[in-house]
Amino acid sequence: MAFFDLPPEQLETYRPELATPPDLADFWNSTIAEARAFDLDVALVPVASGLTAIDVYDVTFSGFGGHRIKGWFLRPTGDAVVPAVVEYIGYGGGRGAPHERLAWAAAGWGHLVMDNRGQGSTWGVGGATPDPAPGGQGVPGFMTRGIADPHEHFYRRLFTDGVRAVDAVRTIPGVDPARVAVAGGSQGGAVTLAVAGLVPDLVAAMPDVPFLSHIDRALTLTDAYPYRELADYLRTHRGAEEGVRRTMSYFDVAGLARGATAPALFSVALMDLTCPPSTVYAAYNHYGHPDGSAIDVYRFNGHEGGEALRWARHREFLAGVLGGSN
């Protein structure tokens, strides 16, 4: 795949005007307040994982609508108070198996892996969280679930679950609530940016090749799924474009991330058809905490981006943010 988006020198300064609804702050403030009216009710069940240096827990907490959200919590064995990373998973995936994600706990961190409600059946080894909310008419996938009304949309629920995951990890004994970071790639990167914009006191955000940024541009720039789901819907629902764009504007993370107060480490891939580079740069250049933030560029990669190389960069970035210590 050749370069298909803006030239690199234009990407670096690409800061488009965003189609942000005037009531965006009220929409999300009321959404989070409604979710926090439910008892968080964090439940931790020890798991016999066979690991000798890492403790594993099956975790459940209340997310959007009080719905019970699953996850894994891993931490180094012992009584030390540790910082924590909350990780969000990519589109279609679930929390998987706990032994798939050992690096953070092995490095001395707590690690909450949040399950994706209603997902976990596309790749990996599955999830455990249903989505009990109705979705209305839509094409296969999650982009058009609740597309007629932002209050009913799937990503209102998932982003809220992400905020509540941070609330949950801060209640776990042995976690330092003042040292919590968020991370994820693709859809997980979108949730990372949304949470960074909605939670004011994180230590860092680490979104890799984030999805759902500058959606207006992505809709007509790429033919790849999941953005293609919106085009598939509009192909049948002729005349619905204005309403679709309005609904999705509430979940455009380039707009949400303008409220972020934590330094961020982004990554972008210049041959990425799934999350085109200009859409990633739109979020990066609008990001609310430019001081101390950075973006890693993978010139010849597609949506896979930096893959396993990202953990070392995340660890290095967090060491800098926290002054070289956990």
TrEMBL record:
Entry-linked InterPro entries: AB_hydrolase_fold (IPR029058), AXE1_dom (IPR008391), CE7 (IPR039069)
Per UniProt, where does substrate bind?
Y91
Q: Which GO terms describe its biological process?
A: polysaccharide metabolic process
Which SUPFAM superfamilies does the entry mention? alpha/beta-Hydrolases
> In which domain of life is the source organism classified?
Bacteria
Which GO-annotated molecular functions does the record name? carboxylic ester hydrolase activity
Give the active-site positions: S186, D272, H303
Question: Which parts of the sequence belong to the Acetyl xylan esterase domain?
Answer: 1-318
* Protein name, per record: Acetylxylan esterase
